[in-house]
Amino acid sequence: MKDPESDDFGFSVSDGFLEKGVYVNMIRPEGPADRAGLKPYDRILQVNHVRTRDFDCCLAVPLITEAGDKLELVISRNPLAQQLNHEQDCLDQDQGLLISALQSNSREHHHYTTTTRAMDL
C-alpha cells in the first residue's frame, strides 16, 4: 500500500544505460518497497500483470503511478547485488506490494551498468 504521508511506494526507477529496461534506483528506508523487499538494481519485468521487460521509464512510470494504492511487481534481481539460491516470492499483506524475484543465470538478467534518469514513485 502507498505510504499515506508521502503518497508513494517508496522507490525510484531509472532506465538502463546499455541494456533496455527499467531498474530500481533508490529505496526509501522503512518505506513500503523497503518493507516488501525491493532492492536497488532490481529490474522491473512486470507491473500489475503488464510485461515491462522492454519498457523505459516513460512507459513504466504511468503504470506504477496509475496502480492506485496496491502495486504488484515481478522483478529480476541482480545476482551481484544479492545472491538468490531459488525463486523468492515476498508478499507483505499489510503493505499491498507483491514482489516476485526471479533468479536467472542468463546474461540478460545481469545488469552491471549505471542507470540514468531516476524517477521517484
Automatic annotation (TrEMBL):
Domain of life of the source: Eukaryota
Species whose genome carries this gene: Hucho hucho
Location (main, coarse): cytoplasm
Pfam family, one: PDZ
PDZ domain segment(s): 1-79
Protein name per Swiss-Prot or TrEMBL: PDZ domain-containing protein
Alphabetic keyword roster: Cytoplasm, Repeat
The keyword Cytoplasm appears for this protein: yes
Segments crossing the lipid bilayer: none
GO CC, alphabetical: cytoplasm
GO BP of this protein: neurotransmitter receptor transport, endosome to postsynaptic membrane
Localization annotation: Cytoplasm
Keyword Repeat: yes
